[in-house]
Design brief:
Layout: E1 2-6, H1 10-13, E2 17-23, E3 26-31, E4 37-38, E5 51-54, E6 60-64, E7 69-73, E8 79-83, E9 90-93, E10 99-103, E11 119-123, E12 129-133, E13 144-145, E14 151-156, E15 159-164, E16 173-176, E17 182-185, E18 193-198, E19 206-212, E20 224-228, E21 233-238, E22 244-250, E23 264-270, E24 275-277, E25 286-291, E26 297-302, E27 307-313, E28 318-325, E29 329-332, E30 338-342, E31 351-355, E32 360-363, E33 372-375, E34 381-386, E35 396-401, E36 406-411, E37 418-423, H2 493-513, H3 516-520, H4 529-553, H5 560-573
Parallel strand pairs: 1-3, 1-37
Antiparallel strand pairs: 2-37, 3-4, 5-6, 6-7, 7-8, 9-10, 10-11, 11-12, 13-14, 14-15, 15-16, 17-18, 18-19, 19-20, 21-22, 22-23, 23-24, 25-26, 26-27, 27-28, 29-30, 30-31, 31-32, 33-34, 34-35, 35-36
Helix pairs in contact: 4-5
């Protein structure tokens, strides 16, 4: 496991950051980038670690090595607390670092009628046990806190239990519905809001509702409500300002057979009561949905490959279309000024780095076989890693400047595995936004820009000259790079309206004047409007068939109904 951490000074982080690496050879902390070296105050733990984590502000670092759970200060490596919990599988800190939460797999022996509580809440500084609870499922294992720790909530037997001021001996409030299977607490402080999901049953639709604590009773208690069908599970994401939540509903199986990944739909709910279904122009799976840190936009990666990526505003209207490409993930920088569209997993690891204020592409590096991506807290660097068990060969990590330069890389020795890499987080106010650079940062390791690749051509077409019609996929360029299209972001609504009127008028005039002979000798008419209409439609169909015929001659493979149409043209000509 690699954990990345940084010093509190903005100037010092330019040369010194800390990150953590967890693997088969132990857990270590490194300082960097751009130069990366062992953290002098932290001795590498050679034992196999089950898990590692940082506190939300990066002050503390905790890990379990199979013998105990240890918590140290990230700055100097000094021990804060040690817990005799060898079976711990998951760790988490409360927002203000008052409580350490540990979870181990639930285990009930056959010769015993009960099991020990497997979810434990510890006071971090004193090491005293606050509360021991039962949590069988790993899903939503950790209680959720408001940022000020005045409210916490956990799911228990299809209802939500709320606790106030870290008093876990008293349930302050409950939210009980038919069958709450998922929830998401809003970020920030008071008033806290919660989104709850109830799956449909017996023909009734599933629904998501937003509530503001502690108003849960009554028909008008919900801030917003959105119901939908085709949902086996949902993921819910609040924006940073807690003003809206995105709900991606998905089914395990696509009954139409169009997609191996099932069906997905994206819904929008706002605390002011507005709801909407986000309309996506291309059919296919939804791979990723991510909010911009400014909370006013979100990016969606969707559609059959090559996938589209589009930024939407809070009215669910498209703001910018990035076209199509081999991508399945999106990552905003912590400051929100840079967006990376990437294709990992079964794709080649191509990354597109965009300046989202100017919608200008910065770089296009490539990280083959990457299984992990994350931003540094200062928004200057990213890390990509190939981790086990997703891939058990060629494990290692690279640290990049966002302009595409590799500033550091590490390959695991033969026989060793890399399990996790992690940056040390920092509060949002620590690192202000910096101007975007377009020139690659100098590096001894160079860059790995994606090389242009030849389009795959089936064997039946390889003896023919390459033509645009022989492409397997027609790639769509970004919105501001399409020929003949003027990008409209900088225009006001009235100017945009007038411009569209002028373009339409100009196009109509050009179409009228394109054929001077048609003005001097208009086509003959039969005198019967119905007959003229039929003749016009017939000519249109013959023209379309003629175009198909030309495509067939150029080598394009036509579908069955298209071949039948061209056969009709041959008969017509005969």
């Amino acid at each position: 496991m690699v954990v990345f951490s940084s010093l509190t000074s903005v100037e010092s982080i330019k040369s010194v950051c800390v990150f953590s690496v967890r693997g088969s050879d132990g857990t270590s902390l490194l300082r960097g980038p751009p130069e990366c070296e062992q953290h002098a105050a932290f001795t590498r733990d050679p034992r196999l670690s089950r898990c590692v984590t940082f506190s939300r502000d990066g002050t503390f670092f905790g890990w379990c090595n199979g013998h105990s759970v240890s918590v140290v200060r990230s700055s100097d490596g000094s021990i804060v607390s040690t817990f005799d919990l060898p079976k711990t599988a998951l760790l988490e800190f409360s927002p203000l670092n008052k409580i350490l939460i540990t979870w181990q797999p639930y285990n009930k022996s056959q010769d015993s009628s009960h099991s020990d509580a497997n979810l434990q809440l510890w006071e971090l500084q004193s090491g005293q046990l606050i509360k021991a609870l039962y949590q069988k499922k790993v899903d939503s294992w950790c209680p959720r806190w408001s940022e000020d720790e005045k409210l916490s909530v956990r799911s228990v037997n299809n209802e939500l239990h709320f606790y106030e001021n870290n008093d876990f001996n008293t349930i302050a409030n409950k939210l009980h519905m038919q069958k709450v299977s998922n929830f998401a607490l809003s970020p920030g402080g008071q008033p806290s809001k919660v989104a709850v999901y109830v799956p449909g049953s017996k023909g009734a639709p599933s629904f998501v509702r937003l509530y503001q604590y502690p108003v849960f009773g009554g028909s008008s208690a919900a801030l917003a409500n959105k119901s939908f069908f085709k949902a086996d599970k949902v993921t819910m994401q609040w924006n940073k300002k807690a003003s809206a939540v995105l709900v991606m509903a998905s089914t395990e199986v696509d009954k139409t057979g169009a997609s191996y990944y099932g069906e997905q739909t994206l819904h929008y709910l706002a605390v002011n009561g507005e709801t909407a279904l986000v309309q996506l122009p291309k059919n296919g799976p939804i791979y990723d949905v991510v909010w911009s840190p400014n909370s006013s936009e979100f990016c969606v990666v969707y559609g059959f490959m090559p996938a589209k990526a589009t930024i939407f505003n809070l009215k669910c209207d498209p703001v910018f279309d990035f076209g199509t490409g081999p991508r399945n993930a999106a990552y905003y920088s912590p400051q929100g000024h840079i967006l990376v569209l990437a294709g990992f997993g079964n794709l080649r690891g191509q990354m597109e780095v965009w300046d989202v204020k100017k919608y200008k592409q910065v770089a296009k590096p490539q990280a083959p076989d990457a299984t992990h991506f994350s931003w540094s807290p200062d928004g200057e660097y990213v890390v990509t890693a190939t981790c086990s068990p997703r891939l058990r060969v060629s494990n290692g990590y690279k640290i990049w400047h966002y302009t595409g330069s590799v500033v550091h890389k590490w390959e695991m020795p033969s026989g060793s595995e890399l399990w996790e890499v992690l940056w040390q987080p920092f509060p949002d106010s620590c690192f202000p936004e910096r101007p975007v650079k377009y020139q690659a940062t100098p590096s001894d390791l160079g860059t790995t820009q994606a090389l242009p690749t030849q389009v795959y051509r089936p064997p039946a077409l390889r003896h023919l000259p390459a033509t645009a019609s022989s492409k397997l996929h027609e790639e769509e360029p970004p919105q501001n790079m399409r020929p003949g299209v003027l990008w409209e972001k900088s225009l006001s609504k009235s100017a945009l309206k007038n411009q569209r009127k002028r373009e339409a008028k100009k196009a109509a005039k050009q179409s009228d004047c394109s054929d001077p002979q048609s003005l001097l000798h208009p086509p003959p008419t039969s005198g019967d409007p119905e007959t003229d209409k039929k003749i016009k439609n017939l000519k249109k169909k013959l023209k379309a068939i003629e175009e198909l015929r030309e495509q067939q001659v150029s080598g394009k493979v036509l579908q069955k109904n298209q071949r039948e149409s061209t056969s009709l043209l041959v008969i017509h000509n005969f």
